[in-house]
Amino acid sequence: MSSVITTRMLGRPSLAASAGRASARSTRAPPPNPPASASPTTAASARDAVRRPTTVASILATPSVDLLARTYRLCHTLSTHGTELDPLTAASRQTRARKSREEGRERISAAATELVRRHSYAELSIGEIMDRAGFGRTIFYRHFDDLGDLLLRASREAMEEMYEAQLALAAARVDADPDAIRAAIEPAVAVYDRHGPLLRAVAEAAPGDERVAAGQEAMHRRFDELVAQALAEVARARGGPPADVTETARALNLLNVSYLLDAFGREPRVSVETAVRTLTEIWVAVFDH
Prior knowledge:
single chain, Arc Repressor Mutant, subunit A, 289 residues, Tetracycline Repressor, domain 2, 14 helices, 3 domains, elongated, mainly alpha
């Protein structure tokens, strides 16, 4: 009996031990609460904010959007659009690209102009032109269709100067003083002195390129008309017009072009003064006829 009582007493926790364990349970820290997720309202406002097109600067400056939505919009904007949302940045890139294209076209035209001083049109090659310009061959076709297109574009300034010189020649009072003829011929000679090799290459390209040939023919036709008008005015003032004003004008223009290409088509063969004096004497003789 005493042993049973003793065993039960030993197996049952004492009152002090039970009290101690209860105290430990009461002082133990409660488990942490699960992390709170974003409320549906906050997530919805973030999604709505993304739908509104905006710039990075406006995102950071908008006070009505809470921090979570603002961060969400900023990350989405940068990952989707990068810096394209800044109009000034996009415009500056377009300006730089346009300048780069213009500079590339000018370098190619300058290389071709330099090469035609030593080579005929038939000897020109796109590869040599691009090597001299410092570009790969394929870059050529970003700017020009072919060599004929390159020559037409490169010679545009020379053509415009030639037309202005021809206008001056037609407008001169050639019936009043031979010096007026000389003054009108000088600009034409100056154009060939500056652009002779390029103009020679254009003339060489014309027989095999319809576009170049059409441009050459249109230019010569305008020149013929201007000179014919000048001849007709001289004939009215002096009497005794040439047998055919139109043909005389064409012959004078062909003489000018052939002589000036021969004189300045490569390295200058004669001086500018010699060319001006020679052509002046011929034109004066025609007008005095």
